[in-house]
Amino acid sequence: MLDIDGSDGGGQIVRSSLALSMLTDTPVRIENVRGNRPDPGLKHQHRGAVELAAEVGDADVTGAELGATTLTFDPGDVSGGNYETTIGTAGSITLVFDTVLPLATVIDEPLSVTVGGGTDVKWSPSLDYYRRVKLPFLRQCGLQAVIDPARRGFYPTGGGRARLRTAPSTLAPIRATDRGERRHIRIYSVASEHLDDADVAPRQARTVAQELPTEASVTERVSTVATTDSPGSAIVVAATYENGCGGFTAFGERGKPAEEVGSDAAASLRQFDRSGAAIDEHLADQLLLPMAIGGGRISIPRVTDHVESSVELLEQFGIECRVDDVGASTIVSIDEPISGQNKTGSRR
């Protein structure tokens, strides 16, 4: 059994460890779960991810309780089919999806996962980021997955619902180092019906369009009003390049004008443009698991804490990840992925 220190990296260490455990058929024991957080141990979102992984991966699990700081996970045969879980709070639906998304490469049948919780909450990929930035990029690399949104969920109540559907996939190496020219900018703004009279969603989108670089042209601008349990808003600016992509998200807060929300997202895009990197810093750590499966080489603006902890985790599973500073960007490479090793489920 592989022992993993979960004190650094937060819930990401739990989710990625579960995914890698199933991908490599390696039992794991995670200790000091979220130990460096003010409230250590498993929270609702993490427990939901563990329960889902246990069901999909036919795993033996101990420690899957709220507040638990030690978790063991011994995977069995991974299988497709239809699964459903509810977080019970505004915990991130997309982060739960991350636990099972890579399994499309080791399952020979479709997988459908429906999760209830938060769709647009801080410290996680928003629903539109996942749908409009992450998944389109991964589909280009061979991972077949889509999201069907059913209901938005904002903090603090949540109440959102979405379904992830995957098909058997073979990942090609992810190559994104020289991003080339910008091709498209798309804006996706959403606000709850509580904010409809104030035109929050259109105001967020309009501000982004006004504050983009002068040479940039918007190819799509969508403003949506959603029925939700809690008031809230979010915006995603999706930028695609010849060989790269970036997504830039901002969330509404009580007392924060819609124009400020839009301005924050536009500022993040301008900063990324100056970096010269091909992949935005938030997508960077999310691509390391797919790269661990199929290999690849990407340029990122900087090594974030999440990238650093993900690299260390991959090395514990025997996957070497090279990080090199090249000019203003950083190159992350995986030359020997697990795609050549024995994998779980029906492909073993």
From TrEMBL:
Subcellular location: Cytoplasm
SUPFAM superfamilies, per database record: EPT/RTPC-like (SSF55205), RNA 3'-terminal phosphate cyclase, RPTC, insert domain (SSF52913)
Enzyme Commission identifier(s): 6.5.1.4
Residues annotated as binding ATP: 98, 282-286
UniProt GO molecular function: ATP binding; RNA-3'-phosphate cyclase activity
Reactions this protein catalyses: a 3'-end 3'-phospho-ribonucleotide-RNA + ATP = a 3'-end 2',3'-cyclophospho-ribonucleotide-RNA + AMP + diphosphate
InterPro entries, A to Z: RNA3'-term_phos_cycl_insert, RNA3'_phos_cyclase_dom, RNA3'_phos_cyclase_dom_sf, RNA3'_term_phos_cyc, RNA3'_term_phos_cyc_type_1, RNA3'P_cycl/enolpyr_Trfase_a/b, RPTC_insert
Keywords for this protein: ATP-binding, Cytoplasm, Ligase, Nucleotide-binding
PANTHER family named among the record's database cross-references: RNA 3' TERMINAL PHOSPHATE CYCLASE, RNA 3'-TERMINAL PHOSPHATE CYCLASE
Protein family (similarity comment): Belongs to the RNA 3'-terminal cyclase family. Type 1 subfamily.
HAMAP family linked to this entry: RTC (MF_00200)
Name this polypeptide is given: RNA 3'-terminal phosphate cyclase
